[in-house]
C-alpha cells in the first residue's frame, strides 16, 4: 500500500463570512448576502466549500514559495489549466482535467487529434464545517460615504464558529504521472510524453509512469505542508479580517489511503477519547509519531488535557508511537523534516 499524509485542522472564525452563497431575493433589502450553510436535522452549520479552501491553499503557495501556477484557459463555458504537471507545481499537486484537440505534425502536415487528460489530485481536502450548530447574525448596513443623496441599504450574514477540516497527500502520486488509458490515470498527452523524454524523467515500463526528480517531489510535498501556518483568503476580509490559518493541527503519515482523524472533534474542540481510540485501533498502519500543534490563545481550556495526552505512547510491535506536541509553526516544521524518509 502507498504512504499518505493525514492532516486534521481547526480554524478559528470569530466574526466571519468566509464563503458566501450569494444574494437572497427573499430578504428585506435587494442586496442581501447569505453565508453557506448545511442543515442537519433542525440545526444549521456554516461551512466553507472545499473548492474555496483549495483556492486559498494554491494562492498562498504562490505567494509564500513562488509556485508557478498553471494558467487557466477559458473556452465558452469551459475552463481548464495547461494540464502540465512537469512545468506547473499546482497541476501536479492539485490535479486537473482537460479535454481538447491537440495539434501535431505528421509528415510535414499539421493534424489534430482528440485528447482528454485527467489527474487525480495527490492533495485531497474536505470542506470546512463548523464543529457546532450556529445561527448566523444578520448585519444591516448602508452605503453612505457622501453627505448628499439617499443611503443604499445592504445586508449580510456573519458567524462566530470554529471550523474543522481534514486533508491528505498521497506521497506516492506526487510528482508521478501515468499514461494509462483510465480515468484519473491518463495524466499524459502525447506532447507531455515527449516533454517527459526531453526532461529525462524516470520511466517505469511496467507501470507506464513517469517520475519527477526526487528533489522536485520533496519540494512540492513539503511546501504544501509548510505553507499551512500562512494560509490566507476568504470573503469579506475588508469588514471581518479573519485569519484562516489553522490554530490546531494533527499530522501523521500512514500506510494506506483512509483518513483516521475525521471524527476526533466535538463542540469543545477535541475529543481526546476518540483520538486515543483511533490511534490504538490503527497503530499498525501509523508510520510516524502523531504531531499535534496548537496556537497559544486558542482553545486554552483544553491545554491541560492536551498536555497530559501528549505523554501517551502506543506500541505496534515494531515501533513506539509518541505524541510530538508544541506550537503550531514548530510542529509543522518538525513534521516536514521527517518526510524525506517517506518520499522515494
Characteristics of this structure?
344 residues, 13-stranded mixed sheet, 22% helix, 3-stranded antiparallel sheet, alpha+beta, 2 domains
Short account of what is shown:
With 344 residues, this protein is α+β, with helices and mostly antiparallel strands.
The helix tally amounts to: 8
Query: What's the N-to-C terminus distance?
Result: 14 Å
Low-confidence stretches: none
Mean pLDDT: 91
**Number of folding domains?**
2
Which sequence of SSEs, written as H and E, runs from N to C? EEEEEHEEHEEEEEEEHEEHHEEEHEHEEH
Which structural category fits the helices and strands? alpha+beta
The largest sheet is: 13 strands, mixed
Portion in helices: 10-25%
Amino acid at each position: 500500500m502507498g504512504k499518505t499524509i493525514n492532516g486534521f485542522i481547526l480554524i478559528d472564525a470569530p466574526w466571519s463570512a468566509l464563503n458566501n452563497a450569494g444574494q437572497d431575493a427573499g430578504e428585506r433589502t435587494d442586496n442581501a448576502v447569505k453565508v453557506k450553510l448545511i442543515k442537519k436535522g433542525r440545526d444549521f452549520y456554516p461551512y466553507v466549500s472545499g473548492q474555496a479552501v483549495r483556492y486559498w491553499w494554491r494562492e498562498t503557495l504562490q505567494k509564500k514559495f513562488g509556485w508557478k501556477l498553471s494558467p487557466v484557459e477559458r473556452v465558452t463555458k469551459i475552463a481548464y489549466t495547461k494540464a502540465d504537471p512537469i512545468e506547473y507545481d499546482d497541476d501536479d499537486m492539485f490535479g486537473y482535467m482537460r479535454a481538447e484537440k491537440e495539434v501535431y505534425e505528421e509528415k510535414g502536415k499539421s493534424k489534430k487529434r482528440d485528447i482528454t487528460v485527467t489527474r487525480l489530485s495527490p492533495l485531497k481536502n474536505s470542506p470546512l464545517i463548523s464543529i457546532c450548530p450556529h445561527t448566523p447574525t444578520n448585519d444591516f448596513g448602508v452605503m453612505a460615504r457622501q453627505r448628499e443623496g439617499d443611503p443604499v441599504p445592504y445586508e449580510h450574514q456573519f458567524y462566530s464558529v470554529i471550523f474543522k477540516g481534514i486533508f491528505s497527500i498521497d506521497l506516492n502520486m506526487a510528482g508521478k504521472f501515468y499514461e494509462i488509458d483510465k480515468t484519473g490515470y491518463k495524466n499524459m498527452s502525447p506532447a507531455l510524453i515527449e516533454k517527459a523524454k526531453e526532461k529525462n524523467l524516470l520511466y517505469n515500463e511496467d507501470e507506464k509512469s513517469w517520475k519527477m526528480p526526487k528533489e522536485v517531489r520533496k519540494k512540492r510535498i513539503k511546501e504544501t505542508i509548510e505553507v499551512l501556518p500562512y494560509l490566507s483568503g476568504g470573503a469579506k476580509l475588508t469588514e471581518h479580517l479573519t485569519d484562516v490559518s489553522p490554530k490546531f493541527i494533527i499530522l501523521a503519515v500512514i500506510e494506506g489511503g483512509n483518513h483516521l482523524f475525521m471524527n476526533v472533534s466535538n463542540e469543545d474542540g477535541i475529543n481526546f477519547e476518540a483520538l486515543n481510540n483511533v490511534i490504538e485501533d490503527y497503530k499498525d498502519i501509523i508510520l510516524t509519531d502523531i504531531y499535534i500543534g496548537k496556537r497559544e490563545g486558542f482553545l486554552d481550556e483544553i491545554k491541560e488535557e492536551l498536555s497530559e495526552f501528549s505523554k501517551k505512547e502506543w506500541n505496534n510491535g515494531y515501533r513506539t508511537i509518541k505524541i510530538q506536541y508544541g506550537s503550531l509553526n514548530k510542529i509543522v516544521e518538525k513534521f516536514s523534516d521527517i518526510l524525506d524518509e517517506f518520499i522515494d
